[in-house]
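Researcher: Go.
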Amino acid sequence: MRRISFWKLKTLFRDMLALCCCALFCVGIVAAHVTRFGDRNGERTFYLYSASSQGLQKNVLRLSEIDDVRGESVRFSLDREKTAEEIEAFAKNIAKRYGAEICFCERVGGVTSYYAYTPRWQDFLRLSGVKINLHIAISAETAVIGSPIIFGGF
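Model: Structure:
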């Protein structure tokens, strides 16, 4: 039986550690590209297989589903009720954070929706002939941001 020297074990351990670090780094890069709104805490919804209301909606992803993500939204509470002017400023701040330009706005039933486009993200939908890939919906006390748009109620 051959004896394995201490130096060979040390080299093997170092190589395995480097391989594990590379694998974790790659998983981190993939995970960072899955969630566009990772800086927001709130109720997260992922849209799988389709960037439409026909897509499967999930709140938690498995690693095997990362390639199937076609959209995302995050619902969060605002610290206090906002005025119309504050809502507009809040939406503009979110759009600026993602390098987006607000294309148009609509108000329906107490919710103000801002539709924006950012060249940072390749995917988009066309609404009324306009490219959209960031949707910001704000009511008095709740906000939802989604990409390419928010599906479901808000």
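Model: The chain has one domain: 35-147.
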